[in-house]
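Field notebook, page 178. I keep forgetting to write these up properly, so this time I am using the form the group agreed on. The chain and the ligand, GNR, are recorded exactly as supplied. Prediction of the bound pose follows.
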Amino acid sequence: MIRPILHYPDPRLRQAAEPVAQVDDDVRKLVDDMAETMYAAPGVGLAAPQIGEGKRIFIMDVAKEDEPSDLRVFINPEIVERHGEIAWEEGCLSFPGAREEITRAERIRVRALDRDGKTFEMVFEGLAAVAVQHENDHLDGKLMIDHLSLIRRRLLHREMSKIAASKRRETKDDVAAE
Ligand code: GNR
Ligand code: NI
């Protein structure tokens, strides 16, 4: 099932997510919804809090368009090593239309559970490393806007608040028209 993606400044995006106690069928069902939602968007990653589920789960697929899909599932992830620096122009499905250059670690090692509840460790670099750090931030209620200068942050906050206000007016008009 494709789930609605929450947009900044929705307060649910600011809550720290809870660890998953057991990787069971309910968790796998949530992962399937997340994958369907991410591919439909489309996006290269999606964290559970972006669809209002406060669980420490994210998914990622950084395969190029001419490559087969490569879905990766991270449950209770931990970034255990970070090396170097890389600047990347990032987008976020919770900030529709925004593109911002953000500097993060260039290479990371992640430890997590997969969809079978098995622990794995893996090294990522480039876009995959950027995406893992972006998604992992979501689990702590941290968003791309928090990485920006005060000026860019104010600008993006105003832009997103304006869009949210106009969406609220639209839904009010819908109700009034009923
Ligand atoms: O689709 C997405 N693209 C992207 C591009 C550069 C760096 C990070 C990302 S993640 C983003 C999807 C998203 O919002 N995940 O939380
Ligand atoms: Ni995001």
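OBSERVATIONS:
- The radius of gyration is 17 Å.
- The longest strand covers residues 72-83.
FOLLOW-UP: compare against the apo run.
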